């Protein structure tokens, strides 16, 4: 049931779930009621449609950060930091927030310190832009319009048209750049982590201060970052 709900880009109704699962509607309804009570799914009462609930999101984050998986992921990120020489992270999208699952700091004394579990406005960081760009376009549009987008620096994109054009560029090139959009003087890039079904589920990012790290240098690191992202996907999904 949960796989069927998560596999749909939009909230899904009982008739569709019944058809996909090959189960009677009464059975599907009973299961949905139980899942809703447990916080695993959310019901839109106006349309009788269901989507992932808050408890399911928390379990997903906990799974990705669990001890039996964090050690190899941190090892991969550590190797990436050693190769690139800048701080690297992996994060996921939660609504319009980019949530840091793991982060390895570089050895430079000048660096940006962010705690694991921290949240950033997705439109202001490269990892968030990668994940927004790979959502269903209609879902992405609704998310972007669901709250006022803050201009965190003079470089932050806040107009919907500009952001959608930027996300189209990200989809085409397969990576995102951050040109001081979260913090002035800090640039970065991110690439997607893709599961066996071709679904983007996380992003691997790097960031550092100008002029030590430039946008051109960020682009040169993309190939190495994609290798790390592929290795992380194999750790998570085999």
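Q: What amino acid sequence fits the structure above?
A:
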């Amino acid at each position: 049931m949960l796989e069927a709900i998560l596999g749909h880009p939009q909230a899904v109704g009982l008739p569709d779930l019944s058809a996909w699962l090959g189960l009677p509607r009464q059975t599907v309804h009973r299961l949905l009621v139980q899942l809703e009570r447990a916080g695993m799914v959310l019901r839109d009462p106006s349309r009788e449609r269901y989507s992932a609930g808050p408890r399911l999101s928390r379990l997903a984050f906990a799974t990705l950060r669990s001890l039996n998986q964090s050690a190899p992921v941190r090892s991969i990120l550590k190797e990436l930091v050693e190769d690139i020489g800048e701080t690297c992270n992996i994060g996921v999208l939660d609504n319009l927030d980019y949530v840091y699952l793991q982060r390895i700091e570089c050895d430079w004394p000048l660096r940006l310190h962010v705690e694991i579990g921290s949240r950033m406005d997705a439109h202001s960081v490269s990892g968030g832009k990668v994940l927004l760009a790979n959502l269903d376009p209609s879902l992405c549009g609704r998310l972007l319009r669901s709250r006022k987008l803050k201009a965190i620096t003079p470089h932050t994109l806040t107009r919907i048209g500009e952001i959608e054009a930027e996300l189209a560029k990200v989809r085409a090139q397969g990576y995102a750049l951050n040109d001081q959009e979260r913090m002035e003087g800090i640039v970065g890039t991110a690439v997607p982590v893709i599961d066996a079904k071709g679904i983007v589920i996380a992003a691997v990012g790097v960031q550092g201060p100008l002029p030590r790290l430039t946008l051109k240098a960020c682009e040169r690191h993309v190939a190495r970052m994609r290798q790390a992202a592929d290795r992380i996907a194999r750790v998570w999904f085999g």
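Q: And what stands out in the fold?
A: The mean pLDDT is 89.
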